[in-house]
């Protein structure tokens, strides 16, 4: 499955992008094609900053209200991916990047992506939550708070 995804990402997708750029260039001209790709990159960097700060504000507001930030963190990642896709030259990547800037689309995608990521991590042995009970489980004393981590001082150069 991974090799298919990598093949699509690094071979089929760029070939399709190149074909689209050439086709648009034949229809509207080379300079206009380059100009639209450059303007899309500028738009991507501007939208990425604007939408990124909006999602950060939503994360901090949710934290103030005691709402776990997992879905919003995934949305922030989708904003980042959208900005990178807009900055990357190509029309197909621009369309996908613009779609990721639509907040309802991000809110729809975020829970599914979060759940897929958790399943993937759990399948690879990530333990979530307190350690399992059993003979090999670390012994803890619930009445005693955990010790503070040691403070390290950097040597003076």
Number of beta strands: 0
How many angstroms does the end-to-end distance come to?
50 Å
Evaluate the radius of gyration. Answer: 23 Å
Q: Enumerate the spans where pLDDT stays under 50 for 5 or more consecutive residues.
A: 148-154
Would you write up a description of this structure?
The structure is a single chain. This protein has 157 residues and is mainly α. The protein has a domain at 37-123. It is built from five helices and no strands. The protein has helices spanning 2-28, 30-64, 70-87, 91-100, 103-123. The protein is flat and about 60 Å long. It starts with a helix and ends in a 34-residue tail after the last helix.
How would you summarize the topology of this molecule?
Blueprint: H1 2-28, H2 30-64, H3 70-87, H4 91-100, H5 103-123
Helix pairs in contact: 1-2, 2-3, 3-4, 3-5
List keywords for this structure.
5 helices; flat
Short précis:
Helix content is 71%, strand content 0%.
């Amino acid at each position: 499955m991974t090799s298919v995804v990598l093949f699509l990402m690094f071979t089929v997708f760029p070939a399709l992008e190149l074909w689209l750029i050439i086709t648009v260039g034949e229809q509207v001209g080379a300079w206009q094609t380059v100009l639209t790709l450059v303007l899309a990159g500028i738009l991507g960097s501007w939208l990425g900053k604007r939408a990124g700060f909006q999602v950060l504000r939503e994360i901090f507001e949710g934290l103030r209200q005691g709402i776990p930030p997992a879905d919003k963190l995934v949305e922030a990642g989708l904003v980042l991916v959208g900005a990178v896709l807009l900055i990357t030259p190509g029309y197909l990547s621009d369309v996908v990047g613009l779609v990721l800037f639509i907040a309802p689309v991000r809110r729809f995608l975020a829970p599914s992506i979060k759940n897929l990521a958790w399943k993937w991590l759990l399948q690879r042995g990530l333990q979530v939550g307190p350690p399992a009970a059993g003979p090999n489980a670390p012994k803890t004393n619930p009445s005693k708070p955990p010790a503070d981590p040691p403070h390290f001082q950097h040597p003076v150069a």
